[in-house]
Amino acid sequence: MFKGIYNGKQHHVSDIATVLSRAWNAGVDRIIVTGGSLEESKEALAIAETDGRLFCTVGVHPTRCKEFEESGDPKKHFQALLALAKEGIQKGKVVAIGECGLDYDRLHFCPPEVQKKYFEKQFELAYATKLPMFLHMRAAAEDFCEIMERNINKFTGGVSHSFTGSAEDRDKLLSFHNMYIGVNGCSLKMAENLDVVRGIPVERMMIETDSPYCEIKSTHAGINFVKSLWPSKKKEKQVLEVIAGCKGITDIDLFSATLYQNTCRVFFPHDLDAAADALLAGRNESQ
């Protein structure tokens, strides 16, 4: 996408360097580039190697799981993913297995039985590499949680990102001690979504852009909580502000530091940010 190629046609020159420059100038500390197929994971690792602040995942998105069988040799395809993940770990770049999971909203890309088979298979990648998982759950909570339960001891932790499920789905995910819930613009569209988000404990939450897909739009229920405007074409807003507003959180610095620590705890456990630690400690003592 950032190479300017849409549906096989070049629409603009590659602007990856410009996107990253804007991010660093805005104070972004690190970026995790998501892999969604074997080839995409290879490309994500190549991108991550261009900058010390870039990291990546290795895995197969549920809508792409047919690639295992279409490769002609699913076992060899799995071994290629494992080899890539190990290579990326040695380079200090691969921080999670994923994006993997179940997506029953888009079954035209991949049938549920194939999704389930290769979602479960990817827990073996997490077990072999001792990495956390970057997870995708869309309209598939029952099957997703059933597979998670069977494999709970195979992975160190993870996040179910871009969460749009019900309160019941939320509570089931929270019942897994090593799971976090990721929230972005797609999680904040309707009043019902905001009610569900209110029930996610801050210490079990992450926030994300899922750039460039899940911005907060003027039609979304959370728009009234947005305070900042960005000088960009889409005028993208802050997920942080909406969640703080709907949860009634006034100390936004403490809130953001906690979310940052949650993210580091899962994806960068050997590099928890000392400044954020100090901020949390100081504010907790003052309270």
UniProtKB/TrEMBL annotation:
The keyword 4Fe-4S does not apply. GO terms for cellular component: cytosol. It comes from the Eukaryota. This is TatD related DNase. Pfam families: TatD_DNase. Keywords: Hydrolase, Metal-binding, Nuclease. Coiled coil: none annotated. A divalent metal cation 2 binds at residues 136, 161. Gene3D superfamilies: Metal-dependent hydrolases. PROSITE patterns: TATD_2. Belongs to the metallo-dependent hydrolases superfamily. TatD-type hydrolase family. The keyword Transport does not apply. One of its GO terms (molecular function) is metal ion binding. A divalent metal cation 1 binds at residues 99, 210.
